[in-house]
Amino acid sequence: TLGTQTDYRDGEAQTDPYSPEYVVHSGSVPEILALATLTWGRGLPAGQAEMEIIDRIREKRAWEAALPPMDSPSNIAKRLKMMEAMERKEWAYREEEIDKLQKVQLEVFKKLLQRREENQNELDATRLYYQWQNHQKAKDEKIRKIQRDCALMLRKLIAKRKNLTGKLERQDIIKEYNDFSSQTYAPLSRNGFFPDNNSDYYAVKNFYLNTFAGLCELEKSVPDSVSQLKIKAPKPKCTITKTGYIKKSGRLDSVLAQVHQ
């Protein structure tokens, strides 16, 4: 007794029977059918080229209507002559269209080649810039190496100039301690001295501050007066009443004493 009706019932699944988009009566050729292939973006809205096509279709239709009938040899020869002339005209028009299309394609090819050349030039410029950067870094590194070698050779020459005769000198301890730039004050790491290894050598280590036993002993040695303070409140110089307020006469005396000072 119950039934369901859904969106997928048989009535919704039925398709429309075939019906043509238009019906052409016998003996008539509608002009609008010549534009049936035009769609939006491809011929519509109509421009100058589409208007030329419509004019050519009208001219061809008028020409077909003007053809003589094929009832006599003279009319047949005239008809063939007119058809040959129309064929030559069609070929000339087609060649003109091909020339226009080739010109458009040539312009497109020129733009594509120009764009490709610009991209290639940009790529070449980028590649040359990176190569220049690499050569510049290599040059700077070489200059720094030459400067380091120059400073090293200058130090060697200065050291040789100090001892021209090449005699060996005895170690003068007094002279080393008198010169703050000597090995005594500033030893070199290449001679086996590494200051970071003994960085805590000069740190202050106190028994009374770093150990608990030292802190306890230090606390015992401190007198009681340091930890137990006894502060006495100073007596007021002015006369105070029982309620804790200063009398007017006492306040006046303190002001006069301050002015006198």
From TrEMBL:
The keyword Flavoprotein does not apply. Coiled coil: none annotated. It holds the Pfam family CFAP91. It is found in: Cytoplasm, Cytoskeleton, Cilium axoneme. One of its GO terms (cellular component) is axoneme. Keywords: Cell projection, Cytoplasm, Cytoskeleton. Residues 4-156 form the CFAP91 domain. Belongs to the CFAP91 family. This is Cilia- and flagella-associated protein 91. The lineage of its organism: Eukaryota, Metazoa, Chordata, Craniata, Vertebrata. The gene is Maats1.
